[in-house]
Design goal:
Alpha-Beta Plaits, single chain, RNA-binding, about 15% strand, Nucleotide-bd_a/b_plait_sf, about 50% helix, 3 helices, RNA binding, 2 domains, two-stranded antiparallel ribbon, 4-stranded antiparallel sheet, alpha+beta, PPIE_RRM, about 160 residues
Length: about 160
């Protein structure tokens, strides 16, 4: 993950169900001026997904909050506090709407060629494995036949001596 971290925004994980944005704001305001607090909601339950983001105006305040609140307890739950990674937008910085329809064509063709090459190599490997398995079965069969011949010879020799 080579994404730059946002030094003013903290990820806060492990939130209890009772914690809302007001409570989260109140828990982090002692460390400095809070610019924004967000707790993303689950679309089906309309409850937060047990994590949130706190954005400070100053980097130093965010660092102090992270140092003090990581591992702290809030409403009976232990918090995980780290720097937040920026949200990734599909299609680059401006999103798919700002991209021409052919913008992804080169990488698509490269992926297709890589996939075809991978399938070709897998098919070659399967064919080689089948040949190897066939040779192994033939070798085992030849060894079994050799054992039967070797066993037949000593018995025949013993019978011949007994009859003499």
């Amino acid at each position: 993950m080579n994404q730059p971290v946002q030094k003013n925004t903290l990820y806060v994980g492990g939130l209890a169900e009772e914690v809302d944005e007001k409570i989260l704001h109140a828990a982090f305001v002692p460390f400095g001026e809070v610019k924004d607090v967000k707790t993303p909601l689950d679309q089906s339950t309309q409850k937060h997904r047990s994590f949130g983001f706190v954005t400070f105006l100053e980097r130093e305040d965010a660092a102090a909050a992270m140092d003090n609140m990581d591992g702290a307890e809030l409403f009976g739950r232990v918090l995980t506090v780290n720097y937040a990674f920026p949200e990734r937008i599909k299609g680059g910085e401006q999103g798919w709407a700002a991209q021409p329809i052919w913008a992804d064509a080169d990488t698509w063709f490269e992926r297709q060629q890589q996939e075809e090459e991978m399938q070709r190599l897998q098919a070659e490997q399967r064919a080689a494995m089948q040949v190897a398995e066939k040779l192994h079965r033939e070798k085992l069969a030849a060894e079994r036949d050799g054992e039967k011949e070797e066993e037949a010879d000593p018995m025949a020799a013993a019978e011949a001596q007994a009859l003499k």
